[in-house]
Amino acid sequence: MRVRVTTLIAMVAGLGLALWAQVSYRVWPSTPPAGCPFKLSRSIVGIAFTGRHTHYANADTWYPSWATDGNMYSPWTDGKVGDVSSSSGGPKATTGNATIVGDDPLSLKIIDVAVFPGDPTPYGGRYPCGSLVYDGVWYYGTYCLMDTDGDPGKGLNWDVLGPFVGFRYSTDFGKTWHDAPHTPAHPLFGEPDKPGGKVKMGSPHFVDFGRNMQYSPDGKAYLVGHGAVDPDPKPREANLSWITGDQIYLARVMPSVQNMNDRAKYEFFAGQDVAGRPIWSHDFSRIKPLVDWNNNAGCVTMTYNAPLKKYLMAITDGGNTISKFNTYILESDQITGPWKLVVYMRHFGEQAYFVNIPSKFISSDGRTAWLCYAANFTNGYLHTNYRSDPPGGGYGMTLQEIRLLAPSEARATGYR
Fold this sequence. Notes:
By secondary structure, this protein is mostly beta strands. The chain has helices at 378-381, 407-413; strands at 3-12, 18-27, 39-40, 47-56, 58-60, 65-66, 72-81, 84-86, 94-101, 109-117, 125-134, 137-146, 160-170, 202-206, 221-227, 245-253, 267-272, 278-281, 291-297, 300-305, 310-317, 326-332, 340-345, 352-356, 368-375, 397-404. The strands form five sheets. Strands 1-2-4-26-25-24 form a six-stranded antiparallel β-sheet.
């Protein structure tokens, strides 16, 4: 379904004359399933795709972090960037890192590409997740997956979510690394209790607070991750994987080389008191969901939109892990909620994943931004023939320009 929005955009010419141009957008219809627990947002009432897009590299897992030098730094894996290859499976698994240079999303350069070894044993694969460059130190997290049937092409549960291992770090922007003191068998948060057991802070990602975390509310780094509880009241097939789950969880830490791999330095969101104030605890066993939507959660990222003073959370529900995926975006004034629905995009991508909103590319009014994601990975080995929807997506680092619709823009089209 395509809904067209026509709006007037003012552009200032060199002599100070205001020139006006009509721009046609594609608004993605919001079609949440029955039982959606979120109220609708009244300030960001949908998203529109401008049609501007680009695609870089032939690898996935891009989570750019905006550093003081103006560059972004990102992990990547499972493919090639230039002449450098990375593969996340088996004892010789590697994860990649790269520098992203440029201010125009349509003409970026990816340089200083490298890989680092990370044995996932006793699990089958090791992948990048939370990545943060702060005060010149790059913290790079990895997590593990287990293969339950030995053949990723046949099974649905082959990517059962394993532990978040911990962080390696670099003080020279990825040229050299200090490995994490933790291992897959002895991970940072101590979960799962056994291979195949449930995790809560699975595949965590840093909240993007802008350049060098400039908009952190308290100077702390925050991490969001997806997970599930045991016993699961209504389990689905492939429920807790790299792209599926039931809940979203939140943790925070004061970022430093000494703190990042010390579980005692972390605080975990433990719900709210009777007055609605967030409760934080150093006791991991007290952690409570930030979002709880059984069989409808999955890989999660969060970005602070400073001009709008809004937190934007992107969650992807990956179905059975090889099907078409659904992505929805929530907004909140506070990092602990309450959360409201901006848009529920059924079959976005059609199989988009690792969706995030790099803060570097948010416009000065907060209404224009870029979605970063990869898409349609099963086309290559399962021949699923999923479409690039919106056009321009694919396996690699896709960037799509979006408009965060104000109520007046939506009313002009009859959208909401």
